[in-house]
């Protein structure tokens, strides 16, 4: 199982002063985090995409290219590229370039985006939410196969054989499909034979099993090669020396993030009780000591019938730089060996 971290390069307000972090300092800390993740032999680092004041990840390929120059072996991916509001040609060029810089370590996770600020910003209509994604994914996959194609769609000018360059270092640039809770997304990934990245940021892991089974059935029906099927999970997580230390470091940023999201989306404010439940055996947070987190990952793996990758979204704890670094270290040096030992057993 591959284990890694995802970042949204979030800017969080200081709990005492209310002031946002310096963007320059936060960007340096993000690059230091991926550098450390590489040093402790984590497998993958993902960069999200948002277009808002409290996040620095509007150009993930640029951040990942900087990370590539400071790392040696960790794989570098989007988490998630909002394909519906992007130009597939430009997205492919950016990640093909990243693949060259990193000597074959680039991947793309594409999705429609749960945060929708990119749509009006780039002139797209939210009523075309799914149609945009379906068309642009079709184009992206065709470009991946060969540089010179003829293609025509509704939302982008036609391509009449013009070449799409550069080509990546890898023979076939890995493209994952990111999904939240929409059944059609799971079926689409299986039908197209794409690896699936499931975002689970609340509730329980068990409730996603029927959706994962939809993916597996669609894969079989489409006759895709069994050896290519891969399922990943993106979850909120944090590792501390103890369960108490991990929760203490992670809670303030989580509370702030979901308070803001609730205000924006009409959710009720989060509570300490909800947080404690999510960190418990029945919840979907991977927060605790190395032993607690390793046991929870093993539970996820059993519950979903086997996963190939799990990535931790730790950005909500970004204010405590020391705790963040220690969490990354513990994930690589303690949690990963424990998980792989359990899998071998």
Q: Which structural class matches the secondary elements?
A: alpha/beta
Helix content: 40-55%
Give the SSE order as H and E letters: EHEHEEHEHHEEEHEHEHHEHEH
Return Rg in Å. Answer: 19 Å
- The beta-strand count equals 12
Number of helices: 11
Beta-strand fraction estimate: 15-25%
Written description of the protein model:
- The chain is an alpha/beta fold and 345 residues long.
- It is built from 11 helices and 12 strands.
- The chain has helices spanning 23-39, 60-69, 88-101, 118-121, 129-145, 183-192, 209-222, 243-265, 272-279, 290-303, 321-344, and strands at residues 2-7, 44-47, 75-78, 81-82, 106-111, 148-151, 159-163, 175-179, 196-200, 231-239, 286-288, 309-313.
- It has an 8-stranded parallel beta barrel with strand order 1-2-3-5-8-9-10-12, surrounded by 8 helices. The protein has a two-stranded antiparallel sheet with strand order 6-7.
- Strand 4, helix 3 (88-101) and strand 5 (106-111) form a beta-alpha-beta unit.
């Amino acid at each position: 199982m591959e284990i890694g971290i995802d970042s949204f390069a979030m800017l969080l307000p200081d709990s005492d002063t209310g002031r946002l972090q310096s963007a320059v300092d936060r960007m340096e800390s993000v690059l230091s985090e991926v550098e450390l993740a590489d040093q402790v032999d984590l497998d993958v680092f993902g960069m999200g995409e948002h277009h808002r004041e409290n996040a620095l990840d509007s150009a993930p390929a640029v951040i990942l290219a900087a990370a590539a120059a400071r790392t040696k072996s960790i794989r570098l991916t989007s988490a998630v590229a909002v394909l519906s509001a992007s130009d597939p040609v430009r997205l492919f060029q950016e990640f093909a370039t990243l693949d060259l810089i990193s000597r074959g370590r680039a991947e793309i996770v594409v999705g429609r985006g749960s945060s929708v600020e990119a749509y009006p910003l780039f002139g797209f209509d939210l009523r075309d939410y799914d149609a945009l994604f379906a068309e642009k994914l079709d184009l992206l996959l065709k470009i991946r196969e060969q540089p010179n194609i003829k293609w025509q769609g509704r939302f982008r000018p036609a391509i009449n054989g013009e070449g799409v360059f550069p080509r990546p270092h890898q023979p076939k640039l890995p493209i994952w499909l990111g999904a939240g809770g929409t059944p059609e997304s799971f079926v689409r990934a299986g039908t197209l034979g794409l690896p699936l990245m499931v975002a689970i940021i609340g509730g329980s892991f068990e409730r996603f099993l029927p959706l994962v089974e939809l993916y597996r059935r669609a894969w079989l029906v489409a006759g895709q090669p069994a050896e290519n099927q891969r399922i990943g999970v993106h979850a909120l997580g944090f590792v501390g020396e103890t369960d108490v230390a991990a929760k203490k470091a992670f809670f303030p940023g989580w509370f702030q993030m979901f308070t803001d999201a609730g205000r924006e989306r009409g959710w009720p404010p989060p509570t300490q009780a909800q947080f404690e439940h999510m960190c418990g055996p029945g919840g979907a947070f991977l927060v605790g000591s190395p032993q607690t987190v390793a046991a929870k990952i093993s539970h996820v793996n059993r519950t979903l019938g086997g996963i190939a990758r799990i990535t931790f979204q730790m950005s909500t704890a970004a204010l405590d730089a020391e705790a963040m670094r220690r969490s990354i270290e513990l994930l690589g040096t303690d949690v990963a060996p424990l998980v792989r030992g359990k899998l071998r057993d």
